[in-house]
Backbone:
């Protein structure tokens, strides 16, 4: 899995850290960030579909 480096404002890290750790929603920061990215991509797919911009896999294969 590739590693990336990003700059994140401290206040966002502080807020995220409230949900990271033992007996919390995410096991670590990486898990929280990956989950957030997946959720954002799902939301973007839904928006694209509503606007007729979503291309399904079959259309991509035909091109």
Residues:
């Amino acid at each position: 899995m590739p590693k990336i480096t990003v700059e994140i404002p401290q206040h966002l890290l502080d807020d995220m850290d409230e949900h990271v750790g033992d007996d919390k929603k995410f096991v670590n920061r990486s898990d929280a960030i990956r989950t957030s990215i997946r959720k954002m991509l799902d939301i973007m797919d839904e928006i694209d579909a509503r606007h007729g911009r979503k291309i399904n896999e079959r259309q991509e294969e035909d091109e």
Notes: The mean pLDDT is 88. The two ends are 29 Å apart (CA to CA). The CA atoms of residues 23 and 38 lie 22 Å apart. The chain has three helices and no strands.
